[in-house]
């Protein structure tokens, strides 16, 4: 499916809005001590920002794995974005999968606390790239 430029811009902005809304859920879950939920929402906030960037630049992906691969290839390996962002994105995906699918997993609050601000910065950096 091919998108018109207007459709592409609209979807990109919707993805960025979703990233920011999802990120606000992190604080609510954190205050409630729901750390597995924090894992989920933190990953998805970053995922939606990355999706906005990929759509903005015309990359088509159909899976979370594809999103990571294309993001790494076109933005991390090229130096457009920091390797730290690539590591963060991968760490968040792993943590999200553990928290969503492993009934014995309990997220480490300290580990997550250390990733909240970098995730916010990553989302803001991607928004700047997309919006110029």
Give me the secondary-structure topology.
Elements: H1 5-31, H2 35-56, H3 64-76, H4 83-101, H5 109-131
Task: Describe what this molecule looks like in 3D.
- The chain is mainly alpha-helical and 132 residues long.
- The chain has a single domain, classed as Up-down Bundle (Four Helix Bundle (Hemerythrin (Met), subunit A)), CATH 1.20.120.
- It is 79% helix and 0% strand.
- The chain contains 5 helices and no strands.
- Helix 2 crosses helix 4.
- It starts with a helix and ends with a helix.
Number of strands: 0
Helix amount: over 70%
The structure class reads mainly alpha
Query: Spans of 5+ residues with little confidence (pLDDT < 50)?
Result: none
CATH class, please?
Answer: Mainly Alpha
Distance between the termini: 26 Å
Instruction: Using the alpha-carbon principal axes, give the shape.
Output: globular
In what range is the share of β-strand residues? under 5%
Q: Gyration radius, to the nearest Å? A: 15 Å
Helical stretch tally: 5
């Amino acid at each position: 499916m091919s998108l018109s430029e207007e459709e592409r811009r609209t979807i990109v902005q919707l993805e960025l809005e979703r990233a920011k809304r999802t990120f606000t859920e992190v604080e609510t879950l954190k205050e409630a001590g729901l750390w597995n939920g924090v894992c989920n929402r933190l990953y998805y906030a970053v995922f939606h920002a990355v999706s906005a960037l990929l759509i903005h630049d015309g990359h088509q992906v159909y899976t979370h794995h594809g999103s990571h691969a294309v993001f790494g290839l076109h933005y991390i390996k090229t130096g457009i974005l920091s390797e730290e962002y690539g590591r963060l994105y991968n760490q968040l995906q792993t943590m999200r999968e553990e928290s969503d699918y492993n009934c014995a997993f309990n997220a480490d609050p300290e580990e997550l606390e250390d990733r909240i601000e970098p995730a916010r910065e990553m989302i803001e950096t991607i928004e700047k790239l997309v919006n110029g």
